[in-house]
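Bug #2210: token dump truncated for Glycosyl hydrolase family 88?
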Amino acid sequence: MKNMKSLKYVILCFLAFTIMGCKSQKNTVESSTKTIPTNIKWSDRMALTLIKAHPESYKIDDAKEPKWDYVHGLVLTSFEELYKTRKNEIYKNYIQSYVDIFVQADGTIKTYQIEKYNIDMVVAGRLLFNVYQNSKEEKYLKAMQLLRKQIEEQPRTASGGFWHKKIYPNQMWLDGLYMGEPFYAEYTKTFEDGKNFDDIAKQFELIHSHATDPKTGLLYHAWDESKAIPWANKETGTSPNFWSRSIGWYVMALVDVLDYFPKNHPKQKQLVGYLNKTADALVKFQDQSGLWYQVTDQGNREGNYLEASGSSMFAYAFAKGANRGYLPTKYKAIANKAFSGIIKDLVKIGPDGEVIITQACAVAGLGGKPYRDGSYEYYVNERKKDNDPKATGPFILAALELNK
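Reproduced locally. Full output below:
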């Protein structure tokens, strides 16, 4: 193993990666066909499953060609947290192999198109902070500056909220809070002395005030300030239903952004308050299995199902929130119940010990072509995918926070 520094590392590599080749190449982490051990943490088992299935990290979402994308940002952020805990170079190399496909010598990012102003494309920039800190290579700094430029120029609603994409005018989606704000928060703390924390808090304020249902306390998937798109309620501008994964994006965004907000910042308590209110609302809809349904408030209505990505996201946000003191300690137990439900009801083990998470919604959105109306029938009929990255990444993060 390249740059081996300690006997402890050798032991970890031997025990935890008996299934893996520990050699790293420019864009590939080699794997063998041996069985994944069952006596290691769930976080490692899931990560090893992904590396075994996708030695080239850009293929995490079964991509045929390299693409700078949010799912890679999510999953590889979980690998980054795993590396901080385990210090196994294979995780670090897996992240590096992705970054180095895309970040060019001049700081441009292959396949990334700033002119689309798609906030989904910002989140993978979170991977660049540690890569730059460790290497001091200017190309990584320039790539971060490019993504920061997108945030600066991102179209906004009249009240100052980021459009989700240029093609979705005046629309804020819960998804977008995770896609943009953690990167924005880390960037402004690292390079701008925190000068834009108020702007970050504003994004949450707008979503909380306009997308929260006063009856349930849950947040609708999206809000159109103009109320012009057909899916928008003509009085409130909100989309018609509560989608668990979208609320999952929102609570994950809160716990991750709070990593960078100083405790004495005037908006910090406000963000913690949003997290508590949303968590309190979600607990009321937690199934006895510990899981949450695809359409959060509709229980076992025909077609609805217990969904993996939203449940994993809630488990992570609740566990991290409790661990950091943002949420009451009872949420650690709630997160444990959710994680146990995932293992019991949604996880299968493959022939070589692979961890396979079932019942994950592959994708859901609003508007676009073909048009997505946000109806109940729409959400429950979108396709499902085993080991979808929107489930595997939060599963790793939850397992880490829970030390499972």
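Output looks complete on our side. The CA atoms of residues 157 and 170 lie 5 Å apart. Marking as cannot-reproduce; reopen if the truncation happens again.
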